[in-house]
C-alpha cells in the first residue's frame, strides 16, 4: 500500500522480483528497482490498464520467458496502476473526462488538484499561474505537495530509499495520449539533465522496441518541456502507423512548447536521483484521444511490454548484470 487518497481510498502497489535465497549477507547492496505507475490524470484510463497488463505479464512470465526471468532476478519492479483512485472512480461514475484528484480547494465549486503539477521540484516553475486558479484543470495547488496523493507517493518513495534498501534506477510514468517518450526536464527547456545523452539513447531504444513490434507504432522522443501538443484545425489522411484501417481520418499535431513545473518526472529525477526517468504518453495521436476503445487495451499493453523488456536489458548492461544486455 503506497498510501491513502484524499477521500480515503488505498493506493495499492505491487512489487515483483526474485531475491537471492542467501539472506546471510551482511550489508547487502541496495536492490535496484524500476517504478512504473499510471493514472495521475484520472481520464487517462489506458495508463492504468497498461500498468496492470505489465504486472500480469511479468508475474505469469517468470520461469517461462527467459527475458522476464533474468530481469526479475536482477531488479525489482514496482507497479502502481493508479496514483489517483478518487479521480479514477469519478471518471467512471460522473465525468469521464475529469483530470485532477477530488480534493477540496478554497473554492467550493472547483475541486481537485493536478497531481502532475504538484510535486515539490520547481513547483509552478513555469510561472504558469495555475496555482491561483482552482477551476483550471491544470491547477497546481496553493503549495507543493498540497495534494494528498503527491504527499503519499513522495513520502513512500523516500522511505523506500532511506529505510528499505531500495535504489530506484528507472521510472516510467504512463500517461495518454500522443505516443511520446519524454525525458526531463518538464519545467524548463533551458536546463538540460546531466545525463541527457544516456536518457536519449535509452528513449530511442524504447521507441525502436515499440516500433519493431506487432503494431509498429511510432513514438516521438522529446524533452518533456516540448511534450505538450495541440491539435491543428485541419486533418490529414490516416496512416498505418496512426490508426486502424477502420478509422476514417485523424487530426495531426502541431508542437507547442508549454513547460510545466511540479511534475512527477522532474521530482523523481532531480530530488530522488532516478537516473533513467521518463514520462510515456500512450496511444493514440488524437483520433480517440482519452476515449481509446477497449480493443486497444491489450495491443497497448503488448507494445509497452516490448519497451519494458528492452528497458530491463538496457539496465542490465548499464549496471553490469550478467546475462542481461542489449
TrEMBL record:
Does the record bear Signal in its keywords?
yes
Arranged from A to Z, the UniProt key words for this protein are: Carboxypeptidase, Disulfide bond, Hydrolase, Metal-binding, Metalloprotease, Protease, Secreted, Signal, Zinc
The prosthetic group or cofactor this protein requires is:
Zn(2+)
What GO biological process terms are annotated to this protein in UniProt? proteolysis
- Per the record, the major location class is secreted
Q: Which Pfam family, an example, fits this chain?
A: Peptidase_M14
Q: Which residues form the Peptidase M14 domain?
A: 1-315
Task: Tell me the domain of life.
Answer: Eukaryota
Please state where this protein is localized: Secreted
Query: GO CC: one term?
Result: extracellular region
Which InterPro entries is this protein grouped with? CARBOXYPEPT_ZN_1 (IPR057246), Peptidase_M14 (IPR000834)
Alphabetized GO MF terms: metallocarboxypeptidase activity; zinc ion binding
Keyword Metal-binding included in the entry's annotation: yes
Q: Which SUPFAM superfamilies match?
A: Zn-dependent exopeptidases
Per the record, the similarity remark reads: Belongs to the peptidase M14 family.
Physiological role = Inactive carboxypeptidase that may play a role in cell wall organization and biogenesis.
Name of protein: Inactive metallocarboxypeptidase ECM14
Amino acid at each position: 500500500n503506497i498510501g491513502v487518497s484524499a477521500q480515503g481510498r488505498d493506493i495499492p502497489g505491487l512489487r515483483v522480483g526474485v531475491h537471492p535465497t542467501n539472506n546471510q549477507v551482511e550489508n547487502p547492496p541496495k536492490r535496484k528497482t524500476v517504478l512504473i505507475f499510471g493514472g495521475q490524470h484520472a481520464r487517462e484510463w489506458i495508463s492504468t490498464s497498461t500498468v496492470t497488463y505489465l504486472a500480469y505479464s511479468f508475474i505469469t512470465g517468470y520461469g517461462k520467458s527467459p527475458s522476464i526471468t533474468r530481469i526479475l532476478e536482477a531488479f525489482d519492479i514496482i507497479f502502481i496502476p493508479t496514483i489517483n483512485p478518487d479521480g479514477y472512480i469519478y471518471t467512471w461514475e460522473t465525468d469521464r473526462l475529469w483530470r485532477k484528484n477530488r480534493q477540496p480547494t478554497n473554492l467550493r465549486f472547483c475541486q481537485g488538484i493536478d497531481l502532475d503539477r504538484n510535486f515539490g521540484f520547481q513547483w509552478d516553475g513555469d510561472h504558469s499561474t495555475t496555482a491561483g486558479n482552482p477551476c483550471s484543470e491544470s491547477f497546481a495547488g496553493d503549495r507543493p505537495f498540497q495534494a494528498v496523493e503527491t504527499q503519499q507517493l513522495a513520502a513512500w518513495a523516500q522511505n523506500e530509499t532511506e529505510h528499505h534498501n531500495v535504489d530506484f534506477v528507472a521510472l516510467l510514468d504512463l500517461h495518454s495520449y500522443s505516443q511520446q517518450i519524454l525525458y526531463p526536464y518538464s519545467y524548463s527547456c533551458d536546463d538540460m539533465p546531466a545525463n541527457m545523452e544516456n536518457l536519449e539513447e535509452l528513449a530511442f531504444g524504447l521507441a525502436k522496441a515499440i516500433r519493431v513490434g506487432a503494431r509498429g507504432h511510432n513514438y516521438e522522443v522529446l524533452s518533456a518541456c516540448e511534450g505538450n501538443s495541440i491539435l491543428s484545425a485541419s486533418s490529414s489522411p490516416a496512416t498505418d502507423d496512426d490508426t486502424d484501417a477502420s478509422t476514417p481520418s485523424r487530426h495531426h499535431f502541431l508542437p507547442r512548447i508549454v513547460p510545466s513545473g511540479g511534475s512527477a518526472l522532474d521530482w523523481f529525477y532531480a530530488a530522488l536521483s532516478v537516473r533513467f526517468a521518463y514520462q510515456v504518453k500512450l496511444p493514440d495521436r488524437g483520433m480517440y484521444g482519452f476515449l481509446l476503445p477497449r480493443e486497444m487495451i491489450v495491443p497497448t499493453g503488448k507494445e509497452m511490454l516490448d519497451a519494458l523488456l528492452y528497458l530491463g536489458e538496457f539496465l542490465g548492461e548499464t549496471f553490469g548484470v550478467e546475462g542481461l544486455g542489449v
